[in-house]
Amino acid sequence: RAFLAVLAVAILAPSATALAQEPLRTLLVGVDRREVNSLNGDWHYLVDQPPFSSLYDSSGKVRNGGYGQNTHPNIDSGPHNAEYDFATAPTLKVPGDWNTQDPTLFRFEGVVWYQRDFNFQPQPNKRTFLHVGAANYRSYVWVNGQHICDHEGGFTPFDCEVTAAVKPGSNFVVVAVDSTRHVDDIPTVNYDWFDYGGLTRDVSLVTVPSAFIDDYDVHLRHGTTFNAADAAILSGYIHVEGATAGTPVTLRIREAGVDTHLQTDAAGRASFEVKAAKLDLWSPENPRLYKVELAAGDDRITDEIGFRDVRVEGTRILLNGKPIFLQGANAHAEAPIRTGRVCTDQDVKNLFGYLKDLHANFVRLAHYPHDERMERMADRQGILIWSEIPNWQRISFDKPEVFAKDEALLREMIRRDRNKASVILWSVSNETPDNPVRTEFLTRLANEARQLDPTRLITSALNSARPKDGAMVLDDKLADALDMVGINEYIGWYVGKPEDADNTRWVLPEKPIIFSEFGAEAKYGNHGGDHARWTEEQQANVLAHQFAMLRKIPQLRGVTPWVLMDFRSPSRNIPKLQDGFNRKGLLSEKGEKKLAFSVVQKAYEDHSIGKP
Ligand code: GCB
């Protein structure tokens, strides 16, 4: 199967009602800022088992026919036809993973078919897209029986044009979601989290004029130097899909005195550099967002965007010219209390409540792009974000087609979130093996990330430091490609005793360093001595010794203990202690605080771990 997400263009037979434009498979920026027809709610579902012959033929190609047609079986009379029926099938809630909604699907990795009807009134000179916030891992979309588009990648959005496929009145959409793991997927088959399958994020229909704003980037100009006093120049672009050259575009930020009239070029792009009358810069202490009004032809979108500058100077990280120290935690997209994949406002509110309680100003969103609600909340609450693509450990670095898929994921992550002031770091990977093939692959990717977005820092979490001459030495060449280097290590848990950290010396690059993972497992409520494994006391002890060690690293600019909250992982199989959860959380999956929580909270409150 050819699954180049970036090339998976919609294939549609032209219909009489089709507009002149080719149907698009794209990613619309700011969908959550538009008025949409939500398709969230109850969807009928049917499950298939390996070899998933309802979806794939014997050569592995997607069948064009089958369940996507949404036909109904002849029950009483007529020739034998279909042996499936969505109309009488049970329902799953969208957004939501299937695993936590149907007990028989709890461990299921495979194909689930989703179907729902919707009413629609097409309007003249408008285009309509089916927006999927994320579906894990592969998705295949049919509307009214037409195969519209496919997408690969479980954590980024996609938008498929359905203008020619929808009709007035009742319509239906069918999406087959396949969560099966494959070696050449991103991530590959092995990873330490739960493979929640399904339409895990919002689904909607987005209707726009025939020429519409599909992408934009409004940011503080990133010059070679920064001076807070003169920080008033905004730059970026607005892209208008389907626009002829010379289409008028306006950018208005009333509170900043910006009212700029632009025109698209031949590529539909209107680039700008404009002076704002005044700008109150965004920071964790002052998460100021501006109402940014964009208009192009008949299309309008109003976003809320913060403006700030982030850069590295020597071994420091400067936010708006001032050195900053990142106090944070790692977070998986595991929903607190109810468990399952994060997909609601309440899930996000709970997670940010924990971060605020911890006195965190930072979060590493491990190990994949999270629900866009996370970035929105971070923008409003002043929490800085590390965002990562799921290059977890051993993906197929030797395959050009995997590089192409990875580039597509990187582009999707950056495109969705480049207007979020909270996001300061793009991470290209986590704990990859230090060898030339991987280093070349990730260096190219890091360079590409920097070229796509020169306003942010590029990072990666490395676990390639090795003992040498009595110290832990990092001489991983990938570090050369990074602006800030993340270090993962588990002294006191996977190796040695908690106290071993006290005497561990680190030899690290002269770049800002963040200790991006460290910690230990503890079952909430399990008590014992400081060295009794799986107890809250030992976990707290490990963190206390880690902090003592980290305080001695001069270029330390951030810490994110692993991990904010216990999360499901099928390989964590010690009954009564793990029960299918990675227990390195400062909180249990129910939100109960372990002793380690207060160790971190106290250190953050006192700002006692590192200096900006
Ligand atoms: C790591 C990984 C993380 C795991 C964690 C652990 O190094 O980056 O994804 O969950 O260790 O708990 O083993």
Describe the structure in brief.
Helix content is 14%, strand content 30%. The protein has 612 residues and is of the alpha/beta class.
Structure in words:
Mean pLDDT is 95; it is low at 1-19. The protein is α/β, with parallel strands linked by helices. 14% of the residues lie in helices and 30% in strands. The protein has 3 domains: 5-209, Galactose-binding domain-like (Jelly Rolls), CATH 2.60.120.260; 227-307, Immunoglobulins (Immunoglobulin-like, Sandwich), CATH 2.60.40.10; 312-605, TIM Barrel (Alpha-Beta Barrel), CATH 3.20.20. It is globular, with a radius of gyration of 25 Å. Strand 22, helix 1 (345-357) and strand 23 form a beta-alpha-beta unit. It has 6 helices and 34 strands. It has helices at 345-357, 372-381, 400-417, 436-452, 536-550, 595-605; strands at 25-26, 37-38, 41-47, 91-94, 111-120, 126-132, 138-143, 146-152, 158-161, 169-178, 203-209, 212-220, 233-241, 248-253, 258-263, 269-275, 290-296, 299-305, 310-313, 316-319, 322-323, 326-331, 362-365, 384-388, 423-430, 457-462, 466-468, 471-473, 484-488, 506-507, 513-517, 556-559, 567-568, 581-582. The two termini are 49 Å apart. The strands form 8 sheets. Strands 22-23-24-25-26-29-31-32 form an 8-stranded parallel beta barrel. Strands 4-3-5-10-7-8 form a 6-stranded antiparallel sheet, with no helix packed on it. Helix 3 packs parallel to helix 4 (436-452). Bound molecules: (2S,3S,4S,5R)-3,4,5-trihydroxy-6-oxo-oxane-2-carboxylic acid. (2S,3S,4S,5R)-3,4,5-trihydroxy-6-oxo-oxane-2-carboxylic acid is lined by residues 192, 367, 430-431, 488, 517, 562, 582, 584.
